[in-house]
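Severity: low
Component: inverse-folding endpoint
Summary: output formatting inconsistent between runs
Steps to reproduce: submit the following structure tokens with default settings.
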């Protein structure tokens, strides 16, 4: 997988992998001059990120339930 061509806020090279079809990662997608401008691209990205967040949250809740059950024993 290609490396992101974006730069961090510190001015150093980004070490994340670029997203599919882009030279930039999700964080630096806005630095891509070839990226489609406008809300559509941002909304698409937000949709993907929120889906990942929901999955992560689901695992966190599940882990919390399991931990609580173990502690009660
Ligand atoms: Zn990046």
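Observed output (run 2 of 3):
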């Amino acid at each position: 997988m290609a490396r992101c061509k974006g730069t961090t806020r510190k001015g150093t090279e980004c070490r994340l992998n670029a997203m599919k079809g882009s030279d930039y990662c999700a964080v630096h997608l806005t630095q891509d001059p070839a990226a489609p401008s406008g809300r559509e691209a941002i909304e698409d990205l937000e949709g993907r990120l929120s889906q990942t967040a929901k999955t992560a949250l689901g695992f966190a809740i599940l882990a919390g339930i399991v931990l609580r059950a173990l502690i009660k024993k």
